Amino acid sequence: MKKRQILLCASALALLLSNAATAQWKPAGDKLKTVWGEQLNPNKVLPEYPRPLLERGEWLNLNGLWDYAIAPAGAAEPTAFDGQILVPFAIESSLSGVQKEVGADNELWYKREFSIPSTWKAKDKHILLNFGAVDWKADVFVNDIFVGTHKGGYTPFSLDITSCLTAGRSKHKLVVRVWDPTDKGYQPRGKQVNKPESIWYTSVTGIWQTVWLEPVSANHVASIKTVPDIDNSVLDITVSTAVANPTDIVEVMIIDKGKVVASGKSISGNKIRLHVDNPSLWSPSSPYLYDMKVKLYSQSAAIDEVRSYAAFRKISTKRDAFGIVRMQLNNKDLFQYGPLDQGWWPDGLYTAPTDEALAFDIKKTKEWGFNMIRKHVKVEPARWYYHCDKEGILVWQDMPSGDQGNSWEPNLYNGGADKRRSVQSADNYYREWKEIIEFCFSNPSVVVWVPFNEAWGQFDTEKVAAWTAACDPSRLVNPASGGNHRPCGDMIDLHSYPQPNMYLADPMRVNVLGEYGGIGLPLEGHLWWDKHNWGYVEFKNKEELTTQYVKYANTLKTLVKRGFSAAVYTQTTDVEGEINGLMTYDRKEIKINEAEVNRVNRNVIAELE
Predict the structure, then answer these.
(1) Kind of pairing between the strands at 234-241 and 137-142
(2) Distance CA 421, CA 51 (A)
(3) How many CA atoms lie within 13 A of 214 on its CB side?
(4) How far apart are CA 184 and CA 177, in angstroms?
(5) What is the Rg, in whole angstroms, of the alpha carbon atoms belonging to the chain?
(6) How far is CA 265 from CA 254, 257, 277, 484, in A?
(7) Strands 510-517 and 491-496
(8) What is the DSSP letter of 578?
(9) DSSP of 327-372
(10) Which helix (DSSP H) or strand (DSSP E) does residue 126 occupy?
């Protein structure tokens, strides 16, 4: 057979397999769909490299159709599976192709086969199996060998599966078992509940971010932490490796427009301080990123190389000429203003259908004149933070809430009571919060940590605030957004619905309005359910909503001079029963006059410029 005929046959076979996969999968249910979900190709699901801050050239994406089964908790691996699920969409989502509930009494099983590329089979190569996130407890098996467990629904984890890959075997079996109690457990879960209503949303169970393989050396780069110091024009960089080998050397290079502008070497785990002459600073108006290359050497031979990036920016506080404590970016007062961003999708729930969709909300936020996003009781995939870094948007990162049930008195200083958590619950909180902080540590866009929202599971407030600051002294801590206010951390955060209001103040800290607005506009054809939808105030059309938005923004302007240094408007999009978004849940309708909102938002920010 001639070469051209072989290529044509191969192309025909690939097309046939693609069509077969497409025929096996379709979105489940009749709920809202985004344009990206409607056009989703099940053979090419989220194909972008999922970890931009530590990127390798060789990798194998395992997204796609897997077998799934729901079985009673504690049962053995099913002998027969229920069908196929499109990974990485949670089983409750439409894009999973399943849209079933699992519940605390059951476990969700996944199964698929994979092959190792022949170019990865050198004797010194190890194979890492990486998960972006699995909610909540994941047990992983390769070729029927248990390789590890991870608890935590929001952070990535990696497992070295090399010893499980039997020599001479062309296909390997991968099984993942997941248990998620949702609101029947103490674990962080954000707004997930078993029975969604009003401000509470559908549960998310199982794999909801990209799964991938990559070949590495036995010792390899495991993490990169960067801390900028703009006052001294330096970057402190700490590279940790899988093995703390004192004979292996790490080299870091900072690259600007293809030119190395600083470099240094150290033993793994030691800080490298690199000076850059007159560095370009990162800000929302100029989100300047430097490329970074990291190499690991063993006996002078390079055994690992990864690409990354870094930025020079500083977040701090300073008392102004009127005695008001203000937030500063790069040593200048900046009013931080943005929407409450839930990060939910009608077809993918926790998971955006495509990378373009993931970036869409961020770009819209910038177009509306905002300079900040509060990521509300959810943690996003690494690429979301990359888009924020690249586009130039400040991020307040919430800890997803859980273990609720304490009293809440938001209108008093030292009101309410902290929850008495079990030792197990508290230990889990600190462990998961630390993983989240480490996950976002090197993203310049992230400037504020928010350990608690309102009084949802709020406990040991002073201790948690101090602990968070100790984990990352380079950022600010907002102890409890709209919660039970305590004299700790860097700010006091009020919630006021619907209109902005300043009913408490702390002269020792930054004063912010962590939530306000919530103006509702239900649009037929873009609603999640037929029963009553929820919003603080409802209007009839775009013009009325925009007028009210502008009125509230003008009120906010007067409060900036009185002491507010930031504000968060509720919210970016509608979500399930909530119809108070600036966009509909499916992102198909913008519910405001964009030019007018951009104008007034810029005027609010300009109050501190």
Answers:
(1) unpaired
(2) 34
(3) 23
(4) 19
(5) 25
(6) 12, 22, 19, 47
(7) parallel
(8) B
(9) EEETTEE--EEEEEE---BTTTBTS-SSHHHHHHHHHHHHHTT--E
(10) strand 125-131
pLDDT tens-digit map of 307-316: 999 999 999 9
| DSSP assignment letter at 163 | G
The C-alpha atoms of residue 478 and residue 327 are separated, in whole angstroms, by: 12
- Burial bucket for residue 247 (CB in 10 Å: 0-12, 13-18, 19+): exposed
DSSP conformational letter for 182:
G
Entry field: residues in the chain: 609
Local structure of residue 209 (DSSP, 8 states): S
Residue 210 to residues 24, 50, 568, Cα–Cα distance (Å): 20, 7, 30
Q: Which residues contact 179 (CB under 8 A, 6 or more apart)?
A: 73, 104, 107, 108, 136, 137
3-state secondary structure of 3: helix
The SS3 of residue 24 is helix
Paired sense of beta strands 564-570 and 510-517, if any: parallel
Tell me the HSE value of 427 on the side-chain side, using a 13 A CA sphere: 4
**Tell me: the pLDDT tens digits for 65-115?**
999 999 999 999 999 999 999 999 999 999 999 999 999 999 999 999 999
- Quick check: helix, strand or coil at residue 388? helix
Strands (E), 399-506: 446-450, 452-453, 476-477, 480-481, 491-496
In degrees to the nearest 10, what's the CA dihedral of 572, 200, 68, 72?
160
Residue 142, strand partner residues: 145, 174
Q: Is the pTM of this model over 0.90?
A: yes
Q: SS3 string of 391-411?
A: HCCEEEEECCCCCCCCCCCCC
Contact 219, 302 (CB under 8 A): no
